[in-house]
Amino acid sequence: MSVATDRPAIILITCDELRADALSCYGGRAVETPHLDRLAHEGVRFTRAYTASPWCLPSRASIITGLYPHNHRAYSNFRDCRLEPERPNLYNVLRGAGYRTAHAGKCHYAPVPYGETKADRTLPYEAFHDYYGSLGIDDLDLQDDKQVSVWFRDDYARELDEAGHLAAYRAAVWDRSASKVFDFPAPAEWHPDAWVGRKAVERIRGHAADQPLFLWASFSGPHFPFDAPAEYHARVRDEHVGTGVYREGEFDDPRRIHHTSYHGGGGIEGAGSAPERACKNYSDDYWQRLRRTYFANVALIDDQVGEVLRAVEEQFGDNALVLFTTDHGEMLGNHRLWGKNNCAYEDVWNVPLLARYPAASPPAAAAGTEQPVPGAALHGTSVDSRVMLTDLAPTCLRAAGVEGAMPTDGLPLEEQATRGGRAFVFAEGEQFLVVGDGHTTYVTAHRRGEALRELFDLDADPHQFENMIDRPEYAARRLRLHEAAEQLFTGALLA
C-alpha cells in the first residue's frame, strides 16, 4: 500500500435543515433511523454541536473553510458574497495534499439568482457548475437544492428530465396551494436525496486505489419543500408526529424577532407560503402533514446513509473518517414557525453531529496531560462538550496528516472533546448574531432598520418562550455574552 493510500478516506455526510431530535439516536420517536443509530453507536455522538449560521450558504462555507462567517465573508444567502475560489478550503487544500476530491449533492457557496426563476422552464446552470469546480472539486454531481433543481438545470435536473419526471416535479414545487407540502411526484429512486445517495455510492465504489478520497455527500433534504415519496409515510409513527410546541401570546410583543413571521408581514421562510404571510394562519392539520412528510424524508435519507456507509466499509474497511451533520436545523412547527431564518432557537442552532474515526486515528491532547487520546478512543461515547461546525475542517485536516494547512476558527473535534469544549458558541448571518454558553442565549437582529434583542434562560425555559432581555436579574448574563460577542469580532476569543 502506498503512502497516499495509507491515509484515510474522509467522508462528510450532511443534510439540509435536519433537527437533531428527528433522529432516533437523539431521542426522536416519530421515525426510526437505524443506520445513523449504528453510526452513533460505533462512533461519537455530540449533543452540543452548533452551526455557525442559521442560513445554508454561510453555514456551508464555514464547514468547508473552518472559518466563522465574518471571516470567510460569505455571510448571506442573498447578497453577492460567494466563497472566493482562492480562499483555502477543504477541497483545494486536500487536493493539494494528494486527495481526490468529490462532491455529490448540494453545494450552495454562492447566492442563487432567485429573481431569474421561471415557473414554466428550467434555466441553464453551467456557470455555477464551473464556479464550484474552481473551489477545488475534482468530481462533482450537482443537486444544488430541491427548488434549485427545478429552477436551474443542474446535474440532477438534467437526469430527471431525461427520465421524464422534471416537469411534474417543477409543477409540484411551483404549486402555491400546496404550501410546500406534497408527495414526490415520481418514483422514489428519483427523489433528490435518493439520487445524491446513489451518486455518492458510485463515487466511492469507483474510486481508484492510488490516492485517498475526500467526499462530501450533501443531501438537500429534509429542507423544504416537504416532499417525501408517499411510500415513506408508512415509516412514520403518527402518534409521535404532533404539531409542535407553542405558547399562546409569545409573539404579541412587536419587539420579538419573529413577531412578523407569526402575525403577518413575513420573515421566516414559512411565512412566505402562509395565508396572509402569517404562520399563525396554518391549521393543525397542515402542521401534522408538514411534520409527517419531514419525518418520512428523514427515513429516506437514513436509508441512503446506510448505502453510503456500506460502500465506505467495503471500499475502505476501517480506514475512513466518517462525519455526519447538517448545515442547520428546522423549526418544524415549534413556536408555530417553519424554516430557520433569523432563528436563535436550539431547534435550528443545536445540530446533530456524529463522528467515526479511522482505527488508527491521530491522537488529540488530553485535558491537563501530555498524554494524547486517539479519536477512535472516544468511540461508543456521547460527548456533551460544546463544539461547532467550524471544528469539522481541522478534524479533516488532522486525519489527512496536514493539520494546520489552512487557518481555521476551530480545533479538531476529538481535541475539543478531551479539553472540555468551547466556553461560548456563536452563529451569524446578515444583520444577525447569537452567542450562547449552554445556559443562556443572547441574540441581536435587525428588522427594517430596527435593532431587536432577545435573551433566553435555557435552564428555566428550554423551549425559549420568554424573552428575558429587559429583566434586571439577567443584566450580568447579558453583559457577559455581549462581551463574548465583541471579543469574537476583535479576534480576542480563542476557538
Structure description:
It holds the Pfam family Sulfatase. This is Choline-sulfatase. The model has no long low-confidence stretch (mean pLDDT 94). Helices cover 32% and strands 18% of the residues. The protein has a single domain (3-246, 284-422), classed as Alkaline Phosphatase, subunit A, CATH 3.40.720.10. Strand 10 and strand 11 form a beta hairpin. The strands form 4 sheets. Strands 1, 2, 3, 5, 7, 8, 9, 12 and 13 form a 9-stranded mixed beta sheet that branches. The chain has a 4-stranded antiparallel beta sheet with strand order 14-15-16-17, with helices on one face. With 495 residues, the protein is an alpha/beta fold. It contains 17 helices and 17 strands. It has helices spanning 3-6, 34-42, 56-65, 69-72, 90-96, 126-134, 148-151, 155-162, 166-174, 192-205, 259-263, 269-272, 284-316, 346-349, 392-400, 413-419, 475-490, and strands at 9-16, 44-50, 100-105, 123-124, 139-142, 152-153, 213-222, 320-326, 350-356, 363-365, 372-374, 381-383, 387-388, 425-429, 432-436, 440-447, 450-457.
